[in-house]
Amino acid sequence: MDRFSNISKDAMAKFEEIANATRLSDLIHRQEEEEKQKNRILWIFALVGAAAAVAAIAYAVYRFLEPDYLDDYDEDYDDDADDEFDYDDDDTDADDKDDSKKEDQ
After folding, report:
1. What CA–CA distance (Å, rounded) separates 98 from 101?
2. pTM (global) more than 0.70
3. Confidence band of 58 (pLDDT split at 50, 70, 90)
4. Of the candidates 53, 57, 56, 33, which has an alpha carbon nearest to the alpha carbon of residue 45?
5. Could you tell me the CA-to-CA distances from 27 to 20, 23, 32, 82 in Å, in that order?
6. Helix (H, G, I), strand (E, B), or coil: what is residue 59?
7. Average pLDDT in the 17-22 region?
8. Spatial separation of the C-alpha atoms in residues 52 and 49, rounded to whole Å
9. What pLDDT, on the 0 to 100 scale, is given for residue 82?
10. What is the spatial distance between Cα 26 and Cα 33, in angstroms, rounded to a whole number?
11. Distance (Å, rounded) from C-alpha 91 to C-alpha 42?
12. What is the CA radius of gyration of the chain?
């Protein structure tokens, strides 16, 4: 019986070695899958960031090269507004005329 017990002990030791090697292989394989997943996410963020950078540069170039029509409009409007709505001078002229008429009488 010693012979069978030695064989069973050797078999159990080999089985444990194979089981440990399988667990180690699974652990390494899981780490590789997690790393691939992280790498995939990193690539996605890199592509989104690159697209955002290109869009920001395109917008900056557009804003730099676009003529500014609003400034021309504001300048013209300010000049017209000063001419049309200058009531203070008209009121003082009317008051002066009334005062001169009263003095004549």
Report:
1. 5
2. no
3. very high
4. 53
5. 10, 6, 9, 81
6. helix
7. 87
8. 5
9. 55
10. 10
11. 73
12. 45
How far apart (Å, rounded) are the C-alpha atoms in residues 36 and 92? 84
Residue found by looking up tokens 């005062």 in the block: 99
Task: Give me 26's structure tokens.
Answer: 């699974």
Mean pLDDT of the chain: 76
DSSP secondary structure string for all residues of 10-35: HHHHHHHHHHHHHHHHHHHHHHHHHH
Token digits of residue 55:
């869009």
86 token code pair: 């200058």
In angstroms, rounded to a whole number, what is the distance separating the alpha carbons of residues 49 and 56?
Answer: 10
- Residue 20 in tokens: 């440990």
User: What does each C-alpha distance from 17 to 10, 23, 69 come to in angstroms?
Assistant: 11, 10, 80
Q: Which of 50, 28, 21 is nearest to 36 (CA)?
A: 28
63-76 per-position pLDDT tens digit: 988 877 766 666 65
- Cα–Cα distance, 42 to 49 (Å, whole number): 10
